[in-house]
Amino acid sequence: MSANHSFGSTPTGPGRLLVIDDNKVMRLLLGRGLEQQGHSVVMAENGRRGLELLRSERFDLVLLDIQMPEMDGYQVLEKITGELSLRDIPVVITSSLEEMDGVARCIAMGAEDYLTKPLNPILLKARINASLEKKRLRDQQKELIRKFAASAVADDLLARGFSLGGQSIQATVLFSDIRSFTTITESLPASDIIELLNDYYSMMFDAINGHGGVVNQIVGDGIMALFGAPAPVENQSECAVMAALEMLEMIELFNQQQAALDRVQIRIGVGIATGQVIAGYTGTMQRATYTCVGDTVNLAARLEAYTKTVGKPILIDENTRHALSDIKVEECGPVELKGKTQAVNVFIVPVDQS
Amino acid sequence: MNETLIDQEAWKTLKSMTDADFLAELIEIYLADSPQLMEQIRAGLPSGDIVTVRRAAHSLKSNSASFGANRLAEAARDLEMIARNNTLEGAEAKFALIEEEFALLVPVLLELKDER
């Protein structure tokens, strides 16, 4: 068993495990059994020492005995689940058959699984691997969240956890779209279309994330982003407009490069609206997406569509306009938009802000 | 091997998880630890220290079960259960049984330890 495996790189690869048990025979037995399976094992003889080790070194999983003097398993578990840096480490409780209600309590407190003593090596292997696998999946999910949200937002989400229920909150919604996308890509080979879209996405994501926004949906060439949801953002309206300006700037540079390579150039439209939105998770337990609906969302979408009519790339609503301080804005006047009984005051944000 | 004292299946399992040297080490540790645990019980009984008695009985039970010493494990379990009910009634008798079983187990383990 090479000690030089790169841990955590393969799905059922070996892990770095911590065994906390006050009983020496148990510690050694467990440690040896796990080492035989290719894992790297560190042992701690009490809860205090175990927590010290957890805080100073990286572990993939903890095996925790319930019955220990001074600091029992419950107390250790409480500490682990209570600390942000530790709570994602899976905890497998080792117990005897008589302690099942204790085990149930630990699971309710957040322990991942349990193993009864005396240990069965087959079960030991299966349970540890299952827990390690689940941890890897969770780590991958965290990575994905980081990919699609600015780090401050991601950190906030990961720290606070997602609130599943619906809320009515103030947010700024941004819609963006490529002008005449279908037409311009009609004559392009499939790989070029995908490459173009990916270039577009990465620029838009960059601009949006860089200003504290979160991309909520992508439908073809249409992007919907939120500023202020799921996590609040200071000066959300201004951030959204700054993001839009940066998006336009990036498209401009992109087009210059495309022209030099004799490739297709694109134009985008951006619509921004601020107001109450209904936000929450919709779907099922197995698959849920963060959804934002309401008047504000519809308005932002309509404004984006209206950019075609008015020939200006960035349009914002009145609420957004009122929240801006340093940004130049032109009036567009009242506009009749689909779904709105009254005409809406629309404003143009000129790309040239000098 | 004395079949009544040590459960064959458990012993086989133990052997599969260790090599001869490690197994010898484990036996040594068990033979050293167990008297200490029993001493804790011995001291705890007259002073009514239910918590210590319970913990020591629990550890003794787990360890003995790992070696397949099921009779000893059961006696220790019974003692643990008594202490869990927040009493020490009948504890003395159980402890006497534990000491008896352990005395029988020692030579068997020593023999197994020297087996290569």
How would you characterize this protein structure?
The complex is a heterodimer of chains A (354) and B (116). Chain A is α/β, with parallel strands linked by helices. Helix content of chain A is 43%, strand content 24%. Chain A has eleven helices and 13 strands. Chain A has helices at 24-36, 47-56, 73-82, 100-109, 121-148, 151-160, 181-185, 190-210, 236-260, 295-310, 318-322; strands spanning 16-20, 40-44, 61-65, 91-96, 113-117, 167-178, 214-219, 222-227, 268-283, 288-293, 314-316, 330-335, 344-348. Chain B is mostly helical and 116 residues long. Helices cover 81% and strands 0% of the residues of chain B. The mean pLDDT of chain B is 88. At the A-B interface, α1 of A face α1, α2, α3 and α4 of B.
Question: Brief overview, please?
Answer:
The complex is a heterodimer of chains A (354) and B (116). Helix content of chain A is 43%, strand content 24%.
Set out the fold topology.
The complex is a heterodimer of chains A (354) and B (116).
Chain A: E1 16-20, H1 24-36, E2 40-44, H2 47-56, E3 61-65, H3 73-82, E4 91-96, H4 100-109, E5 113-117, H5 121-148, H6 151-160, E6 167-178, H7 181-185, H8 190-210, E7 214-219, E8 222-227, H9 236-260, E9 268-283, E10 288-293, H10 295-310, E11 314-316, H11 318-322, E12 330-335, E13 344-348
Parallel strand pairs in A: 1-2, 1-3, 3-4, 4-5, 9-11
Antiparallel strand pairs in A: 6-8, 6-9, 7-8, 9-10, 11-13, 12-13
Helix pairs in contact in A: 2-3, 5-6, 8-9
Chain B: H1 8-17, H2 20-47, H3 50-66, H4 70-84, H5 91-114
Helix pairs in contact in B: 2-3, 2-5, 3-4, 4-5
Relative helix content of chain A: 40-55%
Give the number of helices of chain A.
11
Assess the beta-strand content of chain B as a share of residues. Answer: under 5%
- Biggest sheet overview of chain B: none
Q: Report the structural category of chain A.
A: alpha/beta
Number of strands of chain B: 0
Fraction of residues of chain B in helices?
A: over 70%
- For this structure, the quaternary state is heterodimer
Mean pLDDT of chain A: 85
